[in-house]
Design goal:
By secondary structure, this protein is of the alpha+beta class. The chain has 2 helices and 7 strands. The strands form 2 sheets. It has a 4-stranded antiparallel beta sheet with strand order 2-1-7-6, with no helix packed on it. It has a 3-stranded antiparallel beta sheet with strand order 3-4-5. The radius of gyration is 26 Å and the shape is elongated. The model has no long low-confidence stretch (mean pLDDT 85).
């Protein structure tokens, strides 16, 4: 007669539940982190840089920018800074993507009008980094 060794029956225990809870907590923390980082205050003063065809047209502090009009490639854009943000408020380009893109308020953000070949971007103390940890 041959007897088979009995294999132990696998059942979840309290340590398995602890591992599942830790994994879920880490997943939730990683999912929420980008939203918290987007609300973090900017360090340093922001500067509005406007360029057309790769040539810089204006470089002014955001607080002093006001409203400016730029023309290039047969199109005209009105760029306005208000409330710590800058936006393209008016444009005669087709599609109006630059107007519909809304306001930008953080270093590294930009608004691009492809038909006019104009780029409005914010640069600041936190700009220029590929990765920030901490």
């Amino acid at each position: 007669m041959s007897t088979k060794p009995s294999s132990p029956e696998l059942r979840p225990n309290r340590y398995d539940a602890l591992v599942v809870l830790v994994v879920l907590a880490l997943a939730a923390a990683l999912a929420v982190r980008p939203f918290l980082a987007a609300r973090a205050p900017q360090s340093g003063a922001l500067t509005v840089v406007v360029s057309a065809d790769g040539q810089e047209l204006d470089r002014l502090p955001l607080a002093q920018f006001g409203t400016h009009t730029y023309a290039n490639n047969g199109y005209t854009l009105t760029v306005t800074a208000a409330g710590g943000a800058v936006s393209v408020t008016q444009s005669d380009c087709p599609g109006q993507d630059c107007v519909h893109s809304g306001a930008i308020s953080r270093a590294g953000q930009s608004i691009v009008c492809l038909p006019a070949r104009i780029v409005v971007e914010l640069v600041g103390a936190a700009d220029g980094y590929d990765l920030v940890t901490g």
